[in-house]
Every structure is written in structure tokens, then in C-alpha cells.
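Colleagues,

For the teaching module next term, I've prepared a clean inverse folding example: a structure given as C-alpha cells, and then the sequence designed for it. I'd like students to try predicting residues themselves before seeing the answer, so please don't circulate the second half yet.
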């Protein structure tokens, strides 16, 4: 590590600590040439994921868009911000663990719906109504019927 004061590449590590839920490491160093102390940080270099939208345009993955959609779906529902953050973290981890560098927005939507279904059924229906773009009341009712059927089968 190059010293920011004298440019020497010889330094020793004085202290090491993990940060940000163990996703980063902070190191306190001391230059062996000039004696000055400085701090360095190590983070995993994540390859950016590209999201392929329904109209085949591409954009960089943005976790905040998922969080925003979940927040709207959970508005005035008994779902904590921590639960919403956990859903986003799980989805983000799932996306980054895939081998591809591109993911379809419809696949992200399915992941969100699967997570919301387990947390809050009303939030699930709200999200599904936007995601699936129901054309009429019959398609909406079919989705509700499927949800009720799943709920009934879970009881047994």
C-alpha cells in the first residue's frame, strides 16, 4: 500500500476491523519510512448486473428501485422497514449469486412477489397488481383465488 504522505510502499498494519456487516475491512496502517498513520479500506469488487426490461432496454441494477416498489406495496401495512430491507438484501444476494451478468426485470418481479407472499398477503396483491398488469377484474380475481388456494393447502 502506497503511503499518501511520502509515497513509500512499505507499511505495517496496526489494526484490522470488519465493517458494514462484514462486507468491508478497515485497516489502520503506519508507514515504515515516514512514520505517518493512515487508513485503508477493502471491499469486494462486485460486477455490475444489467437488468433487461420488458421493452428490451437495459439499465444497471438498482436495489433502491426494488425497495421503493416494496415500500409502496407495504404502505400502511404492518411490515417493518427492517423486513423490507431484508427482502431486498435476499433478492440482491440471489441476483448476484447467479452466474449471469444480466437479469430480466420479470425475474426480479417474481422474486419480490415470492418474498412478499410470505411476509404480507395484501402487500403481495398490491405488488402483483402492478407487476402483472391485470387487464380486467377476472384476471385479478384469478390471482386472488390462487392465493387463497395456496393458503388453504398450507393449513393441512
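(Answer key — instructors only)
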Amino acid at each position: 500500500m502506497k503511503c499518501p504522505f511520502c509515497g513509500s510502499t512499505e507499511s505495517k498494519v496496526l489494526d484490522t476491523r470488519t465493517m458494514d456487516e462484514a462486507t468491508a475491512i478497515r485497516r489502520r496502517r503506519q508507514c515504515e519510512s515516514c512514520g505517518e498513520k493512515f487508513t485503508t479500506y477493502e471491499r469486494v469488487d462486485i460486477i455490475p448486473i444489467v437488468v433487461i426490461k420488458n421493452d428490451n432496454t437495459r439499465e444497471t441494477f438498482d436495489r433502491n428501485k426494488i425497495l421503493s416498489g416494496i415500500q409502496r406495496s407495504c404502505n400502511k401495512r404492518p411490515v417493518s422497514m427492517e423486513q423490507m430491507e431484508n427482502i431486498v438484501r435476499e433478492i440482491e444476494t440471489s441476483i448476484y449469486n447467479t452466474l449471469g451478468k444480466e437479469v430480466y426485470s420479470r425475474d426480479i418481479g417474481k422474486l419480490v412477489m415470492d418474498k412478499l407472499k410470505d411476509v404480507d398477503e395484501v402487500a403481495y396483491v398490491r405488488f402483483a397488481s402492478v407487476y402483472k398488469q391485470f387487464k380486467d377484474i377476472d384476471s385479478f380475481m384469478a390471482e386472488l383465488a390462487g392465493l387463497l388456494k395456496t393458503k388453504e393447502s398450507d393449513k393441512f
